[in-house]
Amino acid sequence: MRFVIITGLSGAGKSQAVKYLEDFGYFCVDNLPPSLIPKFVELCQQTKGKINKIALVVDIRGGMFFDDVFTSLDTMEELGYKCEIMYLEASDGILVKRFKETRRSHPLSPEGSILEGITKEREKLKELRKMATHIIDTTKLIPSRLKEELREIYVEGKETNSLMISILSFGFKHGIPLDADLVFDVRFLPNPYYIEELRDFTGNDQKVREYVMKSPVSLEFSERLHDMVGYLIPHYIKEGKSQLVIAIGCTGGRHRSVTIANILYEQLKEKGYRVSSNHRDSLLVKERKR
């Protein structure tokens, strides 16, 4: 029997996660009082294998019952049940934005500020986070990517680390991304903007990629970037970092930065890292022309 507890911060995507696991054949229950977990699992055990994948959402909505989760987890261990904990989180700014978009108040601060509620919740959940089998940061994750992550972990059974790598291309003339951990400037590479037949395309187009990467300088930089990032990632994982944002910039954010970002994404993906990509400024020119 595979038993997963879904927990984490309000607004981090627990509702989406439980829907995806349900699609994957898990028997899911939302907001079950933690004290009932051992009894519920025993009932599932009596189905003689008909229910062999269970996912329960346990979070601070349980109110006064939430603290029972630690006692229940101890009981589960005594009974010989292996329990996986999936912890979902996101940055404060993204969580505030999501609450404002849905016009919801935070469960721990119904009449106060959303940020105050988030701070209280992080404190209340910190011990449970330490126990997590998988920590997923949804700050940069679109729903389809979250579903892919869950499929890899809970269907395909792939071993993953807790670090989520976000690769972001951008244009310096539009500003450096505020949340970048590492910033690389590729404005020294050959610029397709000055080639008339390439100007209106982006690094997502093969002919632009071929133009950029035919330069020996581009090839050497891409190799050195891959080597350096490959060296850094294990150290970030060792330090417990949950998210790494790698920003790659050129002048406008449409050609060179997109090309290099795509190549780095493909290289890290091939190595099995949890990685997503986003091209912040690649469509700005096209949008302005409309």
List the helices and strands and how they pair.
Blueprint: E1 2-8, H1 14-23, E2 27-30, H2 37-45, E3 53-57, H3 68-78, E4 83-89, H4 92-102, H5 114-130, E5 134-137, H6 143-154, E6 164-171, E7 182-185, H7 206-213, H8 216-238, E8 243-250, H9 256-270, E9 274-279, H10 284-289
Parallel strand pairs: 1-3, 1-4, 2-3, 4-5, 6-8, 6-9, 7-8
Radius of gyration: 22 Å
Shape: elongated
By CATH reckoning, the class of the largest domain would read: Alpha Beta
Domain count: the total is 2
Strand content: 15-25%
- Percent range for helical residues? 40-55%
Task: Please tally the β strands and state the result.
Answer: 9
Write the CATH architecture name of the largest domain.
3-Layer(aba) Sandwich
SSE pattern: EHEHEHEHHEHEEHHEHEH
Largest sheet, described in full? 5 strands, parallel
Average pLDDT score = 87
CATH topology of the largest domain: Rossmann fold
Contiguous helical run count: 10
Question: How is the largest sheet built, in terms of strand order?
Answer: 2-3-1-4-5
CATH homologous superfamily grouping of the largest domain: P-loop containing nucleotide triphosphate hydrolases
Note down, in words, how this protein is organized:
With 290 residues, the protein is of the alpha/beta class. The protein has two domains: 153 residues, Rossmann fold (3-Layer(aba) Sandwich), CATH 3.40.50; 125 residues, no CATH class. Helix content is 42%, strand content 18%. The chain has ten helices and nine strands. The strands form two sheets. A five-stranded parallel sheet has the order 2-3-1-4-5, with helices on both faces. Strand 2, helix 2 and strand 3 form a beta-alpha-beta unit. Helix 1 packs across helix 6 and helix 8 packs across helix 9. The longest helix is centred in the last third of the chain and has 23 residues. The protein is elongated. The C terminus is likely disordered.
